[in-house]
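2024-03-11 09:14:02 INFO worker-7 job=invfold-0412 stage=load source=structure_tokens
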């Protein structure tokens, strides 16, 4: 006989689940996205309460017209306060009065506000400010390329120079062009001012600091990006990829210094412990720089530090408990509304969800042939989704599977043979099984890359061959139409409920790098059209991979361990094992674990959500009163497996099953195998009136459920939304002595449980898939 836990305890506990939300709570003690959101809300409320309701301003610093008001307005905009909000409109009216720039800080901050709020309406003002900033750049002498406090306002310094470049960068992002010579002079200024150890100071003789090193790193990235790169270029009507590169490593050397000296509690300084008071000044200004460095260089870690998590934890703990403001140390920063604005800029901009990550790997020179490509693609997707996003870099040589899972999509590119170790290959396979997505490109005629990648796919996913994606695959229409003249072949590997790997054997990133956003270009028409087509392909893949649903920056990915060699769960602990077969028995690797975990984490139930995949002949099968069976391809059990399953069912076991993405080949194979296992019995539809669809067994009311119908899209304007149909659930079952020993859903449950259901996956939405799955379990446990 099967060994069973106390079913009454299990069923009673599920009553509580019926009224709870199907969510996962963060671990106690970890800062959460909700903590950061509340801190931002309270900070926004404080700033709004300090605004002059007549003028629209905040108390200014003498000599810097509109500077503080622009800083506060910029913070509010980045925190999600819309430009149409009356407080923002009042502030904009106030800032527009200063149409003649005089001071660098103020002019730069006003420019950033105009670019963030209503760039089309304020285009002339942005142009005027850009012209002033370009004219006030120092153009001779030792400060050539920098900015001072204003025209003829003394020598240049790295703080003013940083803000000027930030403004020019934002102006170019909204289509206001900056002269090439401005970028070149600025880049030379920052390269000449870097110390031998990689750091920067305020001026030549000043000590190195974290804030100025952040300024240097970001400024080098901005100025380099403003100049045409050798990675990709256009000559006449030809696009040239993988060109000769300037190997300037100023930003990397700056990051090394910052990583060695990193702190979120002080502004690191070369003075070190000799002058501790110095390092306590301008900490919030420094953190605003840290956010910029992390975002612009695509770093989740600076050194060994998760910079956003650590900074957010510090800021949330330091926020005034009553009023919601922050207060720093040092000139200007000791003013609460200035300190609050800087803190909000860190919290809001740093928490932007990760869209995609470059996969850094060996060989060192091959993984990033087009360095600006992902930044440009992310910007393109930001504009389409009207949502602030970011990208990152993850080093596969150091990353765990959980590290990889911080990115919903990994981008793997190159032209040389891949050099993954067995451990790294295992991490990539598990990343896919845990719900990740791999976007792959062979660039610059990479025949060696192509051969090694295809071999890797055969080794990692032998049951899911790389296939050419047909024209009706959702990846071709998930976001944008692709000009048929510039279509590239896309290959895919189907795993975990969807196509989880998309591979293009031709250049994409080269064309992403050449994209200029809102800027006018001198590219020939054909080149511009091919760039647009490659952007559309990239955006389609990302929309398909993510369904435009991205994890909050502070949400930790939930890793479900695979424990095939672990002993069965101890007596009194409920677990579901899956049946192994050749039709994709682990293609929805996390579905069953998620179903068990939902109950366990919400109710603290004695459950085991480890992944257990057992053959029908395994001796441990008797430890499990309920087994799960799913797949997406045809399969066949051996005679011994059929006999073992027949004995299992005769001794009181129950098999629950669903066809992943409503796979017809799997469903047909399952029906054939069940007919052989239980001769004379066949699957029949469970009547819609059956009590297992009601709370009768202490489950949920699932008499009406929502089903995705991928054949018809809800609206042509939003191709990601498949039509949802509300209907009665469809289950089929085999009865023995008045009880169902097999329950089977021809519609998908597993992908709904994984939350990875794609456009071509017909089945129940997540909540209904979970509730129906729970009802199947509680029914089975009480038979």
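2024-03-11 09:14:09 INFO worker-7 stage=emit residues=783
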């Amino acid at each position: 006989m099967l060994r069973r836990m106390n079913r009454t305890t299990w069923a009673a506990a599920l009553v509580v689940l019926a009224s709870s939300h199907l969510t996962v709570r963060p671990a106690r003690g970890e800062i959460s996205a909700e903590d950061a959101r509340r801190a931002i809300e309270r900070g926004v409320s404080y700033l709004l309460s300090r605004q002059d309701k007549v003028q629209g301003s905040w108390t200014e610093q003498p000599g810097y017209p509109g500077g503080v008001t622009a800083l506060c307005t910029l913070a509010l905009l980045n925190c999600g306060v819309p430009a149409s909000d009356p407080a923002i409109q009042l502030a904009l009216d106030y800032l527009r009065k200063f149409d003649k720039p005089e001071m660098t800080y103020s002019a730069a901050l006003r420019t950033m506000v105009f670019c963030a709020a209503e760039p089309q309406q304020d285009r002339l003002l942005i142009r005027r400010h850009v012209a002033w900033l370009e004219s006030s750049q120092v153009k001779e002498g030792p400060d050539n390329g920098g900015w001072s406090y204003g025209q003829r306002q003394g020598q240049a310094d790295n703080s003013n120079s940083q803000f000027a470049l930030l403004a020019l960068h934002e102006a170019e992002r909204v289509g206001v062009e900056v002269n090439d010579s401005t970028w070149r002079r600025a880049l030379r200024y920052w390269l000449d001012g870097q110390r031998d150890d990689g750091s920067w100071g305020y001026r030549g003789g000043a000590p190195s600091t974290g804030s100025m090193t952040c300024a240097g790193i970001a400024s080098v990235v901005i100025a380099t990006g403003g100049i045409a790169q050798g990675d990709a270029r256009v000559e006449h009507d030809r696009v040239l990829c993988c060109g000769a590169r300037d190997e300037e490593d100023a930003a990397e050397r700056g990051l090394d210094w910052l990583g060695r000296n990193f702190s979120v509690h002080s502004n690191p300084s070369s003075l070190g412990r000799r002058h501790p008071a110095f390092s306590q000044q301008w900490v919030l200004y420094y953190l605003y720089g840290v956010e910029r460095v992390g975002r612009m260089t695509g770093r989740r870690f600076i050194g060994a530090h998760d910079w956003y998590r650590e900074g957010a934890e510090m800021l949330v703990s330091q926020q005034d408990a009553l009023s919601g403001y922050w207060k720093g140390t040092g000139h200007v920063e000791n003013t609460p509304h200035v300190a609050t604005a800087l803190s909000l800029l860190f919290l809001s901009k740093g928490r932007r969800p990760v869209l995609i990550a470059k996969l850094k790997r060996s060989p060192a020179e091959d993984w990033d042939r087009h360095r600006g490509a992902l930044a440009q693609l992310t910007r393109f997707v930001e504009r389409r989704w009207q949502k602030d996003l970011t990208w990152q870099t993850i080093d596969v040589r150091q990353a765990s599977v959980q590290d990889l899972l911080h990115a919903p999509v990994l981008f793997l590119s190159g032209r040389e043979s891949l050099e993954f170790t067995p451990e790294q290959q295992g991490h990539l396979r598990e990343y896919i099984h845990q719900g990740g997505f791999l976007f792959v490109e062979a660039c610059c005629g990479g025949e060696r890359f192509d051969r090694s990648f295809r071999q890797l796919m055969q080794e990692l996913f032998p049951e899911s061959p790389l296939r050419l994606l047909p024209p009706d695959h959702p990846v071709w229409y998930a976001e944008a139409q692709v000009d048929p003249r510039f279509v590239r072949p896309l290959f895919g590997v189907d795993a975990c409920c969807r196509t989880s790997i998309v591979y293009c054997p031709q250049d994409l990133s080269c064309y992403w790098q050449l994209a200029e956003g809102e800027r006018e270009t001198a590219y020939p028409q054909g080149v511009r059209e091919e760039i647009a087509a490659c952007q559309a392909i990239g955006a389609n893949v990302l929309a398909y991979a993510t369904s435009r649903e991205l994890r909050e920056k502070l949400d930790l990915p939930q890793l479900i361990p695979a424990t095939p060699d672990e002993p069965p769960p101890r007596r009194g602990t409920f677990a579901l094992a899956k049946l192994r077969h050749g039709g994709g028995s682990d293609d929805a690797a996390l579905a069953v674990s998620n179903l068990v975990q939902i109950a366990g984490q919400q109710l603290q139930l004695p459950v085991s959500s480890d992944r257990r995949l057992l053959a029908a002949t395994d001796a441990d099968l008797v430890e499990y009163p309920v087994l799960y069976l799913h797949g997406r391809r045809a399969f066949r059990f051996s005679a011994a497996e059929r006999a073992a399953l027949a004995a299992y069912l005769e001794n009181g076991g129950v098999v629950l099953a669903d066809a992943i993405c409503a796979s017809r080949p799997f469903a047909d194979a399952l029906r054939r195998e069940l007919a052989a296992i239980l001769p004379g019995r066949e699957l029949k539809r469970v009547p819609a009136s059956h009590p297992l669809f009601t709370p009768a067994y202490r489950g949920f009311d699932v008499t009406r459920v929502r089903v995705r119908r991928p054949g018809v899209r809800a609206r042509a304007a939003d191709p990601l939304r498949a039509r949802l149909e509300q209907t009665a659930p469809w289950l089929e079952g085999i009865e023995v002595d008045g009880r169902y020993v097999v329950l089977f859903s021809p519609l998908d449950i597993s992908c709904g449980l994984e939350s990875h259901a794609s456009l071509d996956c017909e089945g129940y939405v997540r909540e209904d898939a979970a509730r129906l799955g729970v009802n199947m379990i509680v029914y089975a446990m009480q038979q």
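2024-03-11 09:14:09 INFO worker-7 stage=report msg="The two ends are 14 Å apart (CA to CA)."
2024-03-11 09:14:10 INFO worker-7 job finished
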